[in-house]
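Amino acid chain:
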Amino acid sequence: MNAKLQKGFVGVTIILIGALVLGSGASPAQSETDHKKAIQQIADAIKNGKGVVAKKLAAKAAADVKDLADLMHLYRPEKRGGFGLEIGLRQLVKMPNAKIGAKFGSLSAAMAEVILAKAPIAGPKGKNPKAWAGFAQRLRNASTDLEQAARKKNAKAIQAAAVQINDACVGCHSIFKE
């Protein structure tokens, strides 16, 4: 081989190796799996009355969330990689179920903790960060109400809390969803 051809081959090889190294980062599916595990850990801490631990885990999880959409994907159905929260909460409004309410209450509270920890310092495109915190706080309060209602097996309170969770989500998304 002549010298020009060898240099070209070496150059192409270096570019390909560089592309492989750069492209070998965490895949979106992997990061969603990591987020899902983190949310489950936070939910378990909440369920076990370890609020301080939950807040610390939420702060760490929030730092790992690069795009909030990755976190919002966890509301998807389980077969699509989420927890099934969106559909499950709608079903709780129609047919309250204490077991499902307890599960979704702690998961939703965990999501709220991460959303609170991820609150923007300055509002995106002029949007108010206080509104963000307000909606996240409403979500956390309603989620806690859902979990408590489920423990008491209070069907009306389960329904009311599920409606409040939905209202907090819809209100926030009416302002912040892009």
